Amino acid sequence: MVVAAAAVVAVVAAAAAAAAAAAAVAAVAAAAAVVAAVAAVVAAVAAAVAVAVAVAVAVVVVAAAAGTPATDPGRGFA
């Protein structure tokens, strides 16, 4: 009887350890999901910044080619 009780205790302890391990794995998976979401946001912001920089460069290039007062201070006052 004592051996059977010890076996039951061992099985319960093993089940508890397995549940704790599963909870730890779930926590790691949740943390990985958060990291992935943050990485996606960072990538989206980087893409938006890249587009904004490209537009700004294009505006400056077009303005320089047109010789606007911003790039040719004497123009527009003649």
UniProtKB/TrEMBL annotation:
- Keyword annotations for this protein? Membrane, Signal, Transmembrane, Transmembrane helix
Q: Write the signal peptide boundaries.
A: 1-26
Enumerate the transmembrane spans: 41-66
Protein name (record) = Putative membrane protein
Native species of this protein?
Mycobacterium kansasii
Taxonomy-wise, where does this protein's organism fall, top ranks first?
Answer: Bacteria, Bacillati, Actinomycetota, Actinomycetes, Mycobacteriales
